[in-house]
Amino acid sequence: MIGKVTLVGAGPGDPGLLTVKGREALLEAQVVVYDRLVSPAVLSLMPENAEKINVGKEASHHLVPQEQINRLLLNKALEGKRVVRLKGGDPFLFGRGGEELELLTEHGVSFEEVPGITSAIAVPAYGGIPVTHREFTSSLHIITGHARAGKPLEIDFEALVRTRGTLVFLMGVTSLPDICAGLLEAGMNADMPAAIVEQGTTPRQRRFNATVGTLAQTATEQAVTSPAISIVGPVCALAEKFDWFDALPLKGKKIVVTRPRERSGTLAGRLSKLGADVYEYPCIRTEPIIPCPEMEAALNRLGDYTHLVLTSPAGVEALWGMLEREGKDARALSGVTLAAIGPGTDRELRKHGLRADYIPAVYDAAHLGAGLAGMVSGRVLILRAELGSPALTEALERGKIPYDDIHCYTTAYESEHAAALRTLIREDKVDIVTFTSASTVRGFAHSVGEDLDFSRVLGACIGEQTAAEARWYGIRTRVAAQATMDALIDIIIKEGNETWN
Ligand code: SAH
């Protein structure tokens, strides 16, 4: 059977700008052939077992020749694979998408093209520049500023100037002086508004406003590098007024999200939407203890307990795994009162048709313990990690409540990206590190290395206990007003308003 090739436009950088159809194709791919300008967040959608082939390795500046890419697509399709060719922006706009289809048609291989949001329009948009505007211009021209090796630019500047349209130049950082000179020689007014946007639609986006007369010099002074887009035309004057992206509250702030590998999704996503340059650092990994004879025994005599206490979603997962292995379901817990440390744990319970009967007003171990001590009359079963906080059991002991504290999952420190993060912190490139539990503080501190000067780190902590752990390592802290993601994000924005602007 012959496979199929789908050319997919990945959009300009912001992962939210991948189309729904492009995402579907990617999720179903068996082979993904991608290049340099595709963002890591889009690449992370590639199915785990798909074969991933990078044909635009940046480090060595060694690009795979086009001819070889064409053959690769053909061969993989002939092997019967569902191939996705993922390209930055739109595949057909200066993307050689057409060339890649030639060989496929010659061999009768079927293909589809999923257009992408092109940087030519989206990057100006994120720079506050609408490419057309009725009062300023009635046409848009997209031009490559790339010259063939050793040759002058093949641009008809006079024709361009005559159009009075908006001019968008791609691939033109090195030839910018020639482009501007060409426009001026063709009679464009030196005061014509112009702008250059580097790494558009990403948190690292930088936009500089200038005029045709000053644009090349501005780009040099600001050390603008590729990828960047230059825009020439009266619409550039609107950039300051419509500058919505740079105005996002966390725009460009480097925020490290330390969470267990499985759970960084929501916080990281929300910070990104606020413009942050999120660095996900999964520093601990939780794994259920299997087999777990203590938990098994406790569940078999659940009648001995009045309360079952869970202090994390990972604990709920471990519990549920055991019930499943035993061929049981939620009804096995019907006789016992369920207590959860906070809404995250409760949410995990709800996934399984259960809900917490009790959640303390402040979501930490001490308040959970104190709350239970005030209401429990029987025996308490705690299912949690080996390194659980002593504050919970201490509170129960003070209340003379009998309990069994059973460890049903382990937490391991991860260090895959530790060296890279350590360098960023040493170079003061990290604005803030988020901590959502004391165990993530430990995971962070142990994995990045305790020889690091932790006073360089500003930690946004979800609660007092987490903050206490952070201070113990010498980390400077800000504490959320409540132990919720909303409050954590609020404290980060507040910090931003007070010290970063
Ligand atoms: N097919 C792509 C363009 C490929 S040519 C598209 O439709 O967007 C590559 C050029 O696109 C770069 O040299 C740069 O000029 C521009 N470009 C792509 N992504 C960009 C980004 N995020 N910011 C600024 N320019 C970008």
What would you note in describing this structure?
InterPro entries: 4pyrrol_Mease, 4pyrrol_Methylase_sf, 4pyrrol_syn_uPrphyn_synt_sf, 4pyrrol_synth_uPrphyn_synth, 4pyrrole_Mease_sub1, 4pyrrole_Mease_sub2, CobA/CysG_C, Siro_Cobalamin_biosynth. Residues 4-215 form the Tetrapyrrole methylase domain. Keywords: Lyase, Methyltransferase, Porphyrin biosynthesis, S-adenosyl-L-methionine, Transferase. With 501 residues, this protein is α/β, with parallel strands linked by helices. Helix content is 34%, strand content 22%. The protein contains 18 helices and 19 strands. The strands form 3 sheets. It has a 9-stranded mixed β-sheet, sandwiched between helices. Strands 3-2-4-1-5 form a 5-stranded parallel β-sheet, sandwiched between helices. Strand 13, helix 11 (313-325) and strand 14 (337-340) form a beta-alpha-beta unit. Helix 3 (66-78) packs across helix 4 (97-106), helix 6 crosses helix 7 and helix 11 packs parallel to helix 12. The protein is elongated, with a radius of gyration of 28 Å. The structure holds S-adenosyl-L-homocysteine (SAH).
